[in-house]
Amino acid sequence: MHRGLHLLVLLTFLVSSTVLTAAAQEATPGAAPAGGDSLLAGLGYPEIRVTTDGTTNDFPTELEAGRYHVVLENQGDMDVAYLELLIEQLPEGMTFEEADAAFAEAEAAGPPFVPPDIFFEMVYAGGLATEAGETKGFVLDLTPGEWAVLLTAYGPESEEGTDMPVTVTVTGEMPEIEVPTGHVEIGLVDMEFVVPDSLAAGPQVWQVTNTGLQVHHLVLSRVPAGTTEDQMIEFVSSFFVPTATPGAAATPVIEPGLAYEDVLDVFFTLPLSREQVNLYELDLEPGTYAMICVMPDPSGTAHVMLGMVAIVTVA
């Protein structure tokens, strides 16, 4: 994976699965089964199953254009504690070597990391992440062209990943997509989430669509009732601003406001470019939730710091 992009995706993982997790859990809350009786499987889209122990990537190298249900079966042990599947498309005429060089140059110029122009020119079609022994799925659209499917395995202690890229040639014309009914529509626009007036508890399908100009994603976390958007911004900002004391504790507490143990990881998507759509299955408990986006704008500022945060109630 492009080194700089790896940093961005790692930041997504850290914010959603480390920074915003009160305690280690056996499985990510809200993650629904990807088997034949799952809600996503019931939509009837063709399935692509990637089965791996963290050393292989068996994603097909040729596909017809269309909408697919991608299932990632993580058969790794704790030496491969985390697998991530990201699907992207480079600008026409650009090589991976050129992209890697652009991200490496941007990283060397930091901190902070300011993404290169290519970050905003690439097309990100989304993806998902799984822990060891976990199977999860999502739905995406693959349009004609060359796509890169980046499967990255992370160890339990290392911030580095082992990459297993596959180039996928998508042919034909994009068919008319049969839109599912009864799903929850979540919109990603520039520095704002578009969310229904009410969200119900229980198993459900979320359709996450980016209609903004910039790359966005969604991190969903359980928070105490009464939490405000300003409190969430203050909380997240502590992880972007370097601590004044080198020996400061790694688990900060914001006073007044949210403490580390107040915020519980539930779900996150990987980057989505404009007009890209992903469908996910969630199983939500009643309560208060915060949505944020930590993707960067051209200055390197995380979108949450520019107001891309929403507080929602699930009943």
What does this structure look like?
With 315 residues, this protein is of the alpha+beta class. It folds into two domains: 3-171, Immunoglobulin-like, CATH 2.60.40; 184-314, Sandwich (Immunoglobulin-like), CATH 2.60.40. It has four helices and 16 strands. It has helices spanning 3-19, 96-109, 117-121, 229-237; strands at 47-52, 62-64, 66-74, 82-89, 123-131, 135-142, 145-154, 161-171, 184-189, 192-194, 202-210, 219-223, 264-268, 277-284, 287-292, 309-314. A seven-stranded mixed beta sheet has the order 1-3-6-14-11-9-10, with no helix packed on it. It has a five-stranded mixed beta sheet with strand order 2-8-7-4-5, with no helix packed on it. Strands 13-12-15-16 form a four-stranded antiparallel beta sheet, with helices on one face. The N and C termini lie far apart (40 Å). The model is unreliable at 13-36 and 242-249 (pLDDT under 50).
